[in-house]
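Figure 2 data, in text form.
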Amino acid sequence: MSAVVLALHGLLVDGTVATIEPVLAGLLVADEPRLVLDVSQVTVCDTTGAALLVNVAGMARDRGGELRLAAPSPAIRSWLHVAAGMSGIATFASVEGALDADPRDLLGTAAQSVAACVDDPPTRTFPHGRPRWRVNPSGRARSRRGPASPRR
């Protein structure tokens, strides 16, 4: 069965999703729709954009079809691991690979380079698997000589 290829460019954010959503929904009216989105030129994607992709994939599945992402830009790759449902969308390195559903072109979880999210703190590793500081459960101040002793 043939697939429809649509290239998205620019911003996939709250302000643009309202324009894109009816176009994508219109492409999913056929039985067993096959849709390939070339997302190589998407420069910014927010939670609304990621949710749109997940919703479109769900709508395609409900009609017996499929959504495939092709050539994801760093903006899209950063959402592949963090957005619920994005891991269920087949993602390929190229449009040709997505059209052919070539398993050699399929981007696996390990192969995807995920851009760091701005809100995420940097991951730190510590020797022996634990931090160097200790939590004081009593909430009392600690001196350099050790834990605070109760006052008498």
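Caption note: Confidence is low (pLDDT under 50) at residues 109-126, 130-138.
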